[in-house]
């Protein structure tokens, strides 16, 4: 038996592939178009890698015909909010059109196989589809309304609706998951944590949008991957499962925590790294707060995050220190998402 993972060479996709192959009972088909943030080195050697674009219906049909997966994890997506501000059409094409083509290819394969009840299509999404929470609002749950505020989150929201519609209309066994901000090893350095680590070590300013008070739930990537595996084993078609730590931290708190650990492990003779923090003009449409209530996933899937926030940051920093060339790969930290006035 085999499992197909799209976006497999990405940050979360590769973490999932590593855990699936470590379990060792099924072949992992790792599909990725190898966009700018992909990394083949993050994939386990046991995975069967296929370079393909999910917008290519012919390529997808060939993959299904050859490998006959019993389940699909759909993680292929453009993910960086700032890039979506600059190039929204790319997000529409990859996140919406790509999801449509994958759903259709899956539906054709599933139908040809006699519509097996045990087949699963796991659509992996984000908490950003729910928009911004007020300070006193309860955290997101599966019943939270959709209020996307960026081209990225809007494209992911549309993909969520497509996935659910393919179950309601065609019966495809779809499960939707939404996760909070992931962090950990192998993350492309445009994201907050690896970007801060890279800039701090280079002695460059550490830019923080607005007042640094935007709050996020931070989830270690291996904990998220474990949750996705629990969905495959125990999730119900039509269900929605939210993965998060259940703990929120402001961006300023995150950056200060990184600086404090770097002060211990790689001290800068000029002074503490926190001196480099610089507040910059906020991003357009920047959501103030995200929070996840993961209690349903904990009960229904017998899942819970294992990694303490401080331990996760320590592991992330140590990995970046041990892989200095990764931090500098084809990305120099230039700001994106600026709208000319």
Automatic annotation (TrEMBL):
**What superkingdom heads the lineage?**
Bacteria
Q: Report whether Nucleotide-binding shows up as a keyword of the record.
A: no
Pfam families, per this entry?
GDP_Man_Dehyd (PF16363)
EC number, as in UniProt? 4.2.1.46
Q: In what residue span(s) does the NAD(P)-binding domain sit?
A: 4-315
- Kindly list the GO molecular function terms attached to this UniProt entry: dTDP-glucose 4,6-dehydratase activity
Q: Which cofactors does it use?
A: NAD(+)
Kindly state which reaction or reactions the protein catalyses: dTDP-alpha-D-glucose = dTDP-4-dehydro-6-deoxy-alpha-D-glucose + H2O
Q: Which UniProt keywords apply?
A: Lyase, NAD
Mind listing the GO biological process terms from this record?
nucleotide-sugar metabolic process
Listed NCBIfam families:
dTDP_gluc_dehyt
Per the similarity annotation, which family is this? Belongs to the NAD(P)-dependent epimerase/dehydratase family. dTDP-glucose dehydratase subfamily.
Question: Could you identify this protein by its name?
Answer: dTDP-glucose 4,6-dehydratase
Q: What's the encoding gene here?
A: rfbB
């Amino acid at each position: 038996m085999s499992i197909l993972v799209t976006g497999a060479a990405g940050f979360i996709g590769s973490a999932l592939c590593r855990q699936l192959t470590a379990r060792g009972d099924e072949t992992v088909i790792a599909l990725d178009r190898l966009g700018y943030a992909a990394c083949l080195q993050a994939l386990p050697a046991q995975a069967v890698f296929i370079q393909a674009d999910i917008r290519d219906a012919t390529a997808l049909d060939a993959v299904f015909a050859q490998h006959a997966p019993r389940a699909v994890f759909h993680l292929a997506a453009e993910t960086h909010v700032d890039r979506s501000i600059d190039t929204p059409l790319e997000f529409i094409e990859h996140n919406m059109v790509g999801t449509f083509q994958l759903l259709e290819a899956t539906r054709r394969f599933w139908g040809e196989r006699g519509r097996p009840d045990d087949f699963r299509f796991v659509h992996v999404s984000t908490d950003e589809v729910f928009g911004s929470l007020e300070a006193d609002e309860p955290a997101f749950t599966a019943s939270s309304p959709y209020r996307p505020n960026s081209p990225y989150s809007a494209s992911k929201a549309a993909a969520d609706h497509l996935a659910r519609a393919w179950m309601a209309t065609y019966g495809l066994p779809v499960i939707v998951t939404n996760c909070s901000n992931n962090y950990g090893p192998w993350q492309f350095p445009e994201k907050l944590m690896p970007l801060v680590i890279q800039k701090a070590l280079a002695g460059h300013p550490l830019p923080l949008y607005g007042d640094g008070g935007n709050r996020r739930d931070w989830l270690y990537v291996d904990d998220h991957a474990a949750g996705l595996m629990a969905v495959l084993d125990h999730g119900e078609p039509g269900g929605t499962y939210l993965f998060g730590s259940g703990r929120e931290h402001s961006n300023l708190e995150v950056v200060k925590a990184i600086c404090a650990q770097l002060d211990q492990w790689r001290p800068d003779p000029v002074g503490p790294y926190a001196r480099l923090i610089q507040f910059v003009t906020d991003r357009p449409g920047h959501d103030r707060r995200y929070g996840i209530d993961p209690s349903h996933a904990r009960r229904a899937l017998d899942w819970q995050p294992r990694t303490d926030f401080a331990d996760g940051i320590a592991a992330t920093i140590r990995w970046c220190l041990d892989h200095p060339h990764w931090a500098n790969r084809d990305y120099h930290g230039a700001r994106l998402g600026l709208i000319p006035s």
